[in-house]
Amino acid sequence: MIAIETSNRAEALTESQTRCLRLVGQGMSSKEIALETGLSPRTVDQYVNRAASTLGASSRREAA
């Protein structure tokens, strides 16, 4: 049941949030992700933090 809830939450993420989380999962910093995506580091942090909140994760690594 928990896996289903997590799956539903993951579907609620935006494409940008998902992309940033994937890059976090590859060990990239916000600054590195910003350079890769053309976003500002602050925007990357906002996407990652909102995604973590949506997923109920306590950290960016856990969310990734």
Supply the key terms.
64 residues; globular
Your description of this structure?
The chain has 64 residues and is mainly α. It is 75% helix and 0% strand. Helix 2 packs across helix 4 (41-55) and helix 3 (30-37) crosses helix 4. It is globular.
In short:
This protein is mostly helical and 64 residues long.
Largest sheet: none
N-end to C-end Cα span: 20 Å
Instruction: Identify low-pLDDT runs.
Output: none
Q: Round the mean pLDDT to the nearest integer and report it.
A: 90
Helix/strand structural class = mainly alpha
Task: List the SSEs and their pairings.
Elements: H1 2-11, H2 15-25, H3 30-37, H4 41-55, H5 60-63
Helix pairs in contact: 2-4, 3-4
